[in-house]
Amino acid sequence: MAKSFLSIERLTQKYPDGKGGEFTVFENASFGIEKGEFVCILGHSGCGKSTIMNILAGLSEPTLGVVKMDGLEVSGPSLDRGVVFQNYSLLPWLTALKNVTFGVAARFPNWTKQQVEDHSIAFLNKVGLSGDSIHRKPSQLSGGMRQRVSIARAFANEPKLLLLDEPFGALDALTRGTIQEELLKVWSGTDQTVFMITHDIDEAILLADRILLMTNGPLARVAESVEITIPRPRVRTEIVENANYYAIRNHLVQFLGKRSAELAGQPSVAGETHSPEKIHIDKTVGMVGNQPLLQAVKT
Amino acid sequence: METMSENKRAAIWSFTLLLVSLLVWEFSIPTQQVATGELTEYEILIGAGTAKAGVPPPSEVIVKAWEELSNPFYDAGPNDKGIGIQIGYSIYRVLAGYFLAALIAIPLGFLIGMSSVAYKALNPFIQILRPISPLAWMPLALFIIQDSEASAIFVIFICSIWPMLLNTAFGVAGVREDWVNVARTHELSALRTAFTVVLPAAAPTIVTGMRISIGIAWLVIVAAEMLVGGTGIGYYVWNEWNNLDLTSVIFSIFMIGVVGMLLDAAFGLLQRRVAYVE
Ligand SMILES: Nc1ncnc2c1ncn2[C@@H]1O[C@H](COP(=O)(O)OP(=O)(O)OP(=O)(O)O)[C@@H](O)[C@H]1O
Ligand SMILES: [Mg+2]
Predict the structure, then answer these.
(1) With contacts defined as CB-CB under 8 Å, which chain B residues touch A85?
(2) CB of A47 sitting under 6 A from ligand 1
(3) Which of A4, A26, A270, B222 has the largest CB neighbor count within 10 A?
(4) Which CATH architecture has domain A6-75+162-167+196-297?
(5) What is the pLDDT of residues B102-123, one digit of tens each?
(6) How far is CA A88 from the centre of its chain?
């Protein structure tokens, strides 16, 4: 297998269990992400999604294993990897605009103040923020607006890899929908790679090229990698009409509802790496007739 | 009445309270019995004829205040300086000791807040030094420094260092990890992280410590100046007491309160400027 843009190799994370021993969040997890890909990861609470993301960001170190980006080992955080944290993480004493220029100035230290500001405002506009709201402090913005600022901050830095930890978790469905579309707008047309954690199946289908499915922890695995065979550009109201939509959705629901628990808790055989099984569901091409509704092809 | 704002009502109450207490004070003081007629030799000896010994009524204090405040900066020799000059000396000592303390407490507090090893190493010293009354240092300071002026400043230094040190450490240690992570993902240097993320994040706690410190420093300077003498509002109070000039004593007590309030208000203002809502 050719090396991916981002390759996660035999990642293991153990934590002390508070009783003197240790528990394994995941073990020997291995997968790759290609350049320009939008990958979502789904899994139950506590299975280790944020842990993986923090390792990818370089914010924490795994117990074992390496992450390589462009062939170089990730050690410590970098401006090449932008992060949108679960709880926005805006600096509350800065205005929305200053929160973005803060990042841009760090990314492009040679730019003039004006350049930094113009660039920042452009990205705030892209996520639908303009006018005087960008001069307000985060506490004076709604949750949706805050998350927009946070996304603008990450994208304005034009990192090679974007890591989003449940960016819309705290938002209502309506706002969520709008920001998802804005996110797609900002992302498309760039060659940026996105790795996003979510709890929302529909969100994952709308946004992702590929969905990684994690089993429950402890000893969680990235068990499957489901390709989203729905052509872009995707619009929320239209993708539901695509023949693949419900097949994929069903597969995901089945996994999270049943198999994530069944597959959980298996310790690995010594030396074995856990790579996700590739799932390709496509009902738009002629498939074998006697397949059940769920047409998963393992490749 | 209902249309009146809360502040207005409170102001009316304050004013009434002030007026009533001044009136009670004024009329509870028996008019000076300046003895008429013959005084015995003994009465003359103990000064019964002079009208100064009792607690003065507020009207006298107000007259005194007017007198003093209309010419606050006169200087007629070492024992007779205007109230403005005396307060000026006190403020100078307080600020000198205070800023020296800040200069040490804030960087050291940063260190302690960031490193748990530094915290654990320094904690025993802090715990034992902090409860010492600042005036207890005075003899030692006078002996070592050999200068009353510098000793007073040292006492201010030592009393204002603790709240600033502890609050800085506490504030820095409590900076949300998310914010530090934001700095990390932007590859900020340690110094830039300290100034652009940790300092603003911890500023409200730090300024609270600074506000407590300036309050304590102002409390302590009065006592310190009573001990070392020479100049300052503390010395002034003590000197007027020795002169049995209670009107001046009461007036200067009032002035101590006013200056303390202004110092506190200044830091209150600063506190509001660095405050943020999460
Ligand atoms: N610093 C830590 N020390 C000990 N255990 C930890 C630590 N961080 C995470 N864990 C444990 O690791 C497991 C995975 O945590 P993680 O935050 O990655 O879950 P998650 O999949 O992101 O969950 P959620 O969807 O709720 O955010 C959990 O069982 C958690 O208790
Ligand atoms: Mg999480």
Answers:
(1) 178, 181-182
(2) yes
(3) A26
(4) 3-Layer(aba) Sandwich (3.40)
(5) 999 999 999 999 999 999 999 9
(6) 15
What are the extents of the domains in chain B?
Answer: 71-274
pLDDT digits 0-9 by tens, A166-215: 988 878 888 888 889 888 988 988 889 999 999 899 999 999 999 999 99
Report ipTM (2 d.p.): 0.84
Does A15 contact B at CB distance below 8 Å?
A: no
d(CA B68, CA B194): 48
The verdict on the CB of residue A205 being under 6 Å from ligand 1 is: no
Q: Are A274 and A221 in contact, with CB atoms under 8 Å apart?
A: yes
Cβ distance A92 to B278 less than 8 Å, yes or no, reads: yes
CATH superfamily of B71-274: MetI-like (1.10.3720.10)
Q: Is A60 on the interface with B (CB under 8 A)?
A: no
Amino acid making up residue A220:
A
Determine the Cα angle at B218 with ends B212 and B219, to 5°: 90
Q: For residue B203, is pLDDT > 70?
A: yes
CA of A49 to the centre of ligand 1 (A): 8
Task: Measure the CA–CA gap between B217 and A122, rounded to whole angstroms.
Answer: 51
Distance CA A10, CA B48 (A): 99
Taking CB atoms and an 8 Å cutoff, what residues of chain A touch B186? Answer: 79, 102-103, 106-107, 157
Pair A155, A183: CB distance under 8 Å: no
Does residue A54 have its Cβ closer than 6 Å to ligand 1? Answer: no
